[in-house]
């Protein structure tokens, strides 16, 4: 038993179940658009004026636009500002450069001090 195949194009609903076998692009095209807005797909193919005229026989009605959910733009959650980290990047980079030099200088100082007192 064949299910009803319906789709919408430009806000109009069509029952194309009877047209599945006759569709030049094959029934897979219509089945993949079942229950969806096929406006873009329909326009991308570039249907002829006779194909557009044929649509009238499958026309069921218009879509009630009040039942279509509105799309909301995604906005990521706001991150709290971290007030603890106020150190500029320059200071951090300077310390990353100076720390190894200070440790090396300390190592030489300890070595020199222990060597001269022995």
Automatic annotation (TrEMBL):
Pfam families: Cyt-b5. Residues 1-64 form the Cytochrome b5 heme-binding domain. Coiled coil: none annotated. Belongs to the cytochrome b5 family. Keywords: Heme, Iron, Metal-binding. GO terms for cellular component: membrane. Signal peptide: none annotated. Transmembrane segments: none annotated. It comes from Hibiscus syriacus (Rose of Sharon). One of its GO terms (molecular function) is heme binding. This is Cytochrome b5. It comes from the Eukaryota.
């Amino acid at each position: 038993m064949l299910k009803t195949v319906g789709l919408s194009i430009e806000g109009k609903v069509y029952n194309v179940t009877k047209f599945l076998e006759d569709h030049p692009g094959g029934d897979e095209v219509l089945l993949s658009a079942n229950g969806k807005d096929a406006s873009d797909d329909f326009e991308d193919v570039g249907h002829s004026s006779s194909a557009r005229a044929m649509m009238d026989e499958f026309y069921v009605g218009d879509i009630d636009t009040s039942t279509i959910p509105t799309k909301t733009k995604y906005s990521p959650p706001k991150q709290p500002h971290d007030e603890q980290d106020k150190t500029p990047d320059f200071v951090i980079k300077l310390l990353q450069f100076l720390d190894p030099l200070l440790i090396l200088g300390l190592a030489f100082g300890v070595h020199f001090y222990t060597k001269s007192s022995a």
